[in-house]
Known about the structure:
Helix content is 44%, strand content 14%. It is of the alpha/beta class. It has three domains: 2-201, 3-Layer(aba) Sandwich (Rossmann fold); 211-297, 3-Layer(aba) Sandwich (Rossmann fold); 299-433, NAD(P)-binding Rossmann-like Domain (Rossmann fold), CATH 3.40.50.720. The longest helix has 32 residues, at 203-234. The chain is elongated, with a radius of gyration of 24 Å. The mean pLDDT is 96. The structure holds uridine-5'-diphosphate-xylopyranose. Belongs to the UDP-glucose/GDP-mannose dehydrogenase family. One of its GO terms (molecular function) is UDP-glucose 6-dehydrogenase activity. The active site is at residue 266. Substrate binds at residues 155-158, 210, 255-259, 263, 327. Keywords: NAD, Oxidoreductase.
Amino acid sequence: MNIAIVGTGYVGLVSGTCFAEVGFDVTCVDIDEKKIDDLRHGIIPIYEPRLDEMVKKNVEAGRLHFSTSLADVIDVVEVVFSAVGTPPDEDGSADLKYVLSVAKTFGENIRKYTILVTKSTVPVGTAAKVKEAVQTALDRRGENIPFDVASNPEFLKEGAAIKDFMSPDRVVIGTESERARTVISRLYKPFMLKDERMIYTDIPSAEMIKYAANSMLATRISFMNDIANLCELVGANVNMVRKGIGTDTRIGKKFLYPGCGYGGSCFPKDVKALIKTAEQNGYRMEVLQAVENVNERQKSILFDKLMRHFNGDLKGRTIALWGLAFKPETDDMREAPSLILIDKISDAGGSVKVYDPVAMNECRRRLGDKVTYCKDMYEAAIDADAIMLVTEWNEFRVPSYAALERIMAEKVILDGRNIYDPDEAAEHGFTYMCIGR
Ligand code: UDX
């Protein structure tokens, strides 16, 4: 089967590459000429483990192509996936201009039955707008060509996106016709032995599932961050509490780790967008509003601890930031706690030295010379008054306390992900602060 995927961002590129990997003929389309040119030369715009080798392999096998024009390929494809961005506009709702522009191009160019599947995370009700945009374009042409729209949300975790796509927990397919459902389900058959992980729904439910899933996960994190903060006040240890509650199979062990706040391209945006959708429908999402407020507060928590430790004065202090990306295995800094921390430390008169295994270029792009860039975690720690661990990369997990003792100005560690053993840090004479222990 031949398919096109519009939008070579994170979702589009991973999906396209994985569909090619299992044998489909895929054209990834993007209006950004430089991006397409780079991709044709094997230059991948994002960091995702294994993606570069898989792109290369499938391009060489002749199954993965790149183009700047959907119109050029639409005649040969049965399905067009739309995986373009939906950036939040000023009031927090998703901006649909790219999604609707793909729908328009689709309507202007199809010549036979084709399916337009939305993969981008879009508010409930968007498929109806997409359908209308396609129909309007067809009407303008005076053509009556059959088509279907469908919703097929993605659940890829950055850093594990290939694995998530190749062996999904579930595939949600929201359609309004049997024909579309059959075609789309064929595309996913290579990724599962049986049909059991395929979930067929109507379109609004498929659109809602994505927001509900991400909001539920964000809720777990904010809830645990709240519990962690309270643990500190009452002398409890959130690690023990986490284990104690996670063994209840109704709660489950995963996604209960407190930290310095969630970030990334999905949780913050989706939580805001769902609050907004509810508002537009005359409903208040009380829980999600609290989830969002707790997360905003949590992103400052390491800074608050730092300020308390240095009696409210950071002038002349140097802070080493270990980790910039919003989580390990990605260079993505969208909504990352590191950005808030760097701002706050700088505003308070402190200087920041940073190191991240892959996000250094991304940080340079965003912050220029606001911080000092270091070649490794130890260089960042030289003459530092404190280390702030913000992203739990594996290489930060077993630091040499002996080396740190020699090079740091003061022996202070703020561990935003609870990866260090408090006793070990104390044995080396470090003041150690973490989250909820
Ligand atoms: C998320 C969803 O998991 C994915 O299904 C969806 O499609 C996109 O959004 P992603 O943003 O890549 O994926 O990151 P994820 O691994 O889910 O982590 C999100 C944030 O939560 C990170 O900032 C992480 O540090 C934080 N987190 C996660 C915690 O603070 N505690 C946890 O227990 C788990």
